[in-house]
Amino acid sequence: xxxxxxxxxxxxxxxxxxCGRIGGAGYRTLAYDLDPEASKYAEESYKNVTSSALxxxxxxxxxxxxxxxxxHHVSEVVNNLLQQEGTLNxxxxxxxTTSGHPGESQxxxxxxxxxxxxxxxxxxxxxxxxxTAGTLTAMVGGDHxxxxxxxxxxxxxAKNIVHLxxxxxxxxxxxxxxxxxxxxICSVSEGLIALxxxxxxxxxxxxxxxxxxxxxxxxQQRMPxxxxxxxxxxxxxxxxxxxxxxxxxxxLQESNIPAxxxxxxxxxxxxxxxxLGDESDHLEIVKIIEDWSGETIE
Amino acid sequence: xxxxxxxxxxxxxxxxxxCGRIGGAGYRTLAYDLDPEASKYAEESYKNVTSSALxxxxxxxxxxxxxxxxxHHVSEVVNNLLQQEGTLNxxxxxxxTTSGHPGESQxxxxxxxxxxxxxxxxxxxxxxxxxTAGTLTAMVGGDHxxxxxxxxxxxxxAKNIVHLxxxxxxxxxxxxxxxxxxxxICSVSEGLIALxxxxxxxxxxxxxxxxxxxxxxxxQQRMPxxxxxxxxxxxxxxxxxxxxxxxxxxxLQESNIPAxxxxxxxxxxxxxxxxLGDESDHLEIVKIIEDWSGETIE
Amino acid sequence: xxxxxxxxxxxxxxxxxxCGRIGGAGYRTLAYDLDPEASKYAEESYKNVTSSALxxxxxxxxxxxxxxxxxHHVSEVVNNLLQQEGTLNxxxxxxxTTSGHPGESQxxxxxxxxxxxxxxxxxxxxxxxxxTAGTLTAMVGGDHxxxxxxxxxxxxxAKNIVHLxxxxxxxxxxxxxxxxxxxxICSVSEGLIALxxxxxxxxxxxxxxxxxxxxxxxxQQRMPxxxxxxxxxxxxxxxxxxxxxxxxxxxLQESNIPAxxxxxxxxxxxxxxxxLGDESDHLEIVKIIEDWSGETIE
Amino acid sequence: xxxxxxxxxxxxxxxxxxCGRIGGAGYRTLAYDLDPEASKYAEESYKNVTSSALxxxxxxxxxxxxxxxxxHHVSEVVNNLLQQEGTLNxxxxxxxTTSGHPGESQxxxxxxxxxxxxxxxxxxxxxxxxxTAGTLTAMVGGDHxxxxxxxxxxxxxAKNIVHLxxxxxxxxxxxxxxxxxxxxICSVSEGLIALxxxxxxxxxxxxxxxxxxxxxxxxQQRMPxxxxxxxxxxxxxxxxxxxxxxxxxxxLQESNIPAxxxxxxxxxxxxxxxxLGDESDHLEIVKIIEDWSGETIE
Lengths: 298, 298, 298, 298
What we know:
homotetramer; 8-stranded mixed beta sheet; NADP binding (chains A, B, C, D); 6-PGluconate_DH-like_C_sf (chains A, B, C, D); 6-phosphogluconate dehydrogenase NADP-binding domain-containing protein (chains A, B, C, D)
């Protein structure tokens, strides 16, 4: 049993898996969620995990993990804790696995620094399945020299851990990564519809493309496993993807970068979100592109 | 030594490598190119390969391979041969490894069928390096039942051989594959420029993305090996890429498919081709996108 | 009564109005349509217009007018007549008011020239209402030196007659004009939706824009009269608009011109055509853009 | 001589013309600019205009006009004045002719309301030439019931005065108007290049289009008078146009409106701004599109 105690805040689809991996790696983990059912579930499902209220969880931990819908939520929790005298005394590190916003992460980092808490933005890629398997990629921003101590905890859920620069860098790369994912979903859909109209079986076409220069994770995994099957069951919501893409659009806007390809991606997924709603699977973007031509990808 | 004799027409950068692999696999190969230096070079460099004029090469072969700049060239050679009585008497199969046009391949196939020659469009992906190593992907269209006999010859240069449907199907999938490659070059460039402006080292960012959901062959291979190095030395010309993308655009147009993502890709690479010329490396598209923001990907 | 006899081929919504204006100007006009009801209607409705079969109409005329769905139809009629020995003996000029294709018009012109018939492509803009009022704009291509003689007949229906160059020039400018119309429909729709979401009354906004630098015929006429009213009743079909835009796209493709703005227009109206059908009014494009945001322009 | 005294803050290219028209209409006008040369110039050039420092100008006026680079500058001046006790006591109305930002205008309006000053955003369209001639369009937002009193002053420089809604409405419509202007510059440029490649004289083509359905202020005025002449001398800077387009993009983003046409416009003009700089004429966008195809519009 490891002597470091961790707090884990936010036990949604992704958070609970991360929390379970940390506990499973031998860290005593105090789990908190707004929904008491969620923390009870975590306690019952994972080793070394105990349900806790927010304040005691943080008070008794050296490392706090958060996994929330967006940086705004993280900021609220942090501000709340900063106003409770002494709550953060024991805390040395805060690791935020939210798909967050680089600019807001920089602000949170400097606020926590006033209490000697070192903040890392630690965006993860690989989905709940990758979390369960411990094979996530972690994209980390924050003080490199202090990173060693949390890296070993992060390695309980991530196989590829990449330190990318100062605060916000992890969230920035995650935002770009997810925008590329969205771009690939759009462009691959359009290409497959052209092949379908041509009478070519799409499973075979994807097999060919996936060993060729046009390949991407979308041709290799998303399309064959979740779209051709008509399952649309990956489990990553369109609303969350759109949030990440908007973070990337903000970065492009701030730096005056013309980006016609990524911009057209944003317009397409915005159509999908407006028509299908936040809660659809992110792969349902495909359905909008299908409607435009009257052809299905199957 | 295999008893089947092959003709190989077109000994450019790609063709000579394919020709060398066929000879190396033990097939007697008669090599022809408009440029006599090219066929002399093939004879000197590869096992079982003999330089030959066009007519005798075809007259003495059971299988003809072609690797030409586009389907129009293939059509010209085929029409030329069809007018020479008896030239195709021994030929059973014609395998066209050109990055060709699906519609023109259908026409060539039906013309050759009048002389009992079975035509396969056999587009390849993997570049000269993949040819040398014998690890290409071959995307094949044509009569499936007759495919077995040529498949073993094709396997001398291709590791993944995928039969995709009737005549033209191989060229159609290749056109879509290369259009996805072009789309990825554009969108990844835009994303990397955003990260560069943010101060993030791009080699590390590419490492993170390349194990995450936004990954593609462009993040995994093209960018780190040929762009970050500022080499732009992959060896696939912008002119040839544009030809393939235009084939895909034709397919979209014929089937009335709206494809905003692939279309914007075409507009960007057309700018690159107009400004940089046909002979630039296809990765120099990146330079146009860099000029738009004044930031370089390195 | 003018001594020149005209034939008029194609008596659809637009053609019959043009035919009526020519007759009304005092030219004896022999009217032909595939549908006998249409030529009977023309005879009954207009002065100096007589219903006729195709061959006698052409045989007895010095000037032939055509107004057909596209250049392909014109080409068929011309080829048919060329095969009937002597039919074109009296004909000096052929004026094609179809929204045609520049390249096909060039071919038709050279075929007719073999029988000493001078061909003019004479695209018109202004719709059936403009035809009735005789206020159309005519965009003409063909031999300038011979143009004087037909110009006075054309002036029976067009107020602005512009000679633009050799054969095909009229159809080329019409194709670009209609593509700009389509582009304006799309961009104005997007802008108005932004203002609607902001709570601004659109009739007033259009009044302001229509005397400012962002104005276009779409802000001045199409939107206030046919969209804000929710009438969508201009009477120009989406299918015909798409045909003209595709002609323009072909021109861009042939000349390797990157045109991201016009291209995105084509993708949007292709979506509209696939979903709403050829027969919708061209302004119903607006409905697709409305669906994307869930906001209506009214 | 009218009894109302006006202050005019900001005497750039546009501001000084507006100031001159107000003075010319008989209003005593106190003119202020950061650059003393500018206010001296206004005093010397226009009737009833006196150069003044900022505080006395405002202290002695019932109506304050501002014409500054953007809303941020307006906000700074207003905040500065609000901190000087009593400065705004006499002021009843503030009319901001800046091409401003709707959201910031709402904030300024509510701040000024605390001192009983009624704020109107009054964006103008028509350029310095329209100001000199008094033929501008004014797009006004703010309290409609109070508008009558300032409307007569505004009519000294504007012919079309349109009240569009509450605070910010004028700036919102101006932003959309200028974005449509930018969109038209892009799409017309692309279309003209296609016609140029086809060998059609562009002055004649523009004449045809400008009486047809594809017409816009860009085909009727900007292209023939400032681009075909190669003058690029309209006098409205690219930097200011981009600012207005970005205001429109912000409105689209806030309301989740997919707008592929306006978005592609923004990407193109951002390229132009990055390459040509803020101070270029807004029509120099054309040069970027020309470079893409290697063809000039002349």
